[in-house]
Amino acid sequence: MSTAELASSYAALILADDGLEVTADKLQTLIKAANVTEVEPIWTSLFAKALEGKDVKDLLSNVGSGGGAAASGPAAGGAPGGDAPEAAKEEEKEEDKEESDEDMGFGLFD
After folding, report:
1. Across the chain, where does the E strand assignment appear?
2. Keywords in UniProt for this one (predicted)?
3. How does residue 80 score in pLDDT terms, banded at 50, 70 and 90?
4. All residues at 6 or more sequence positions from 44 whose CB lies less than 8 Å from its CB, including other chains
């Protein structure tokens, strides 16, 4: 990780810890106060845009949680007759047949 990325990350964490909004100007001010001279303004802009509207503390507390896993079950607008699970099973069977290496005439260790 470069010095610019580290400085921007630490400045964003400082702002979040103080409960302040993360903006490019505030990041630049903190980086200048820390006497880090090799940070181009593009880095602070990127970090500010990436963290815009996000709670940094919440991001840190959910680092190891795995994030947005797909929900299992029919979609909200699914068919009322229960056809969705059967259709999904049929699609899975078709995909398995297409992805099979047996019909190609060679194996992994041939």
Report:
1. none
2. Ribonucleoprotein, Ribosomal protein
3. low
4. 8, 11, 24, 25, 27, 28, 31
pLDDT at 94: 58
- What is the helix (H) or strand (E) element at residue 95, kind and residue range? helix 83-99
Confirm if 56 and 12 have CB atoms less than 8 A apart: yes
How many CA atoms lie within 13 Å of 104's alpha carbon, on the beta-carbon side?
Answer: 9
Which whole-number Å values give the CA distances from 109 to 34, 99, 100, 101, 105, in the listed order?
Answer: 57, 17, 15, 12, 12
Among 6-20, 27-41, 61-75, whose mean pLDDT is lowest?
Answer: 61-75
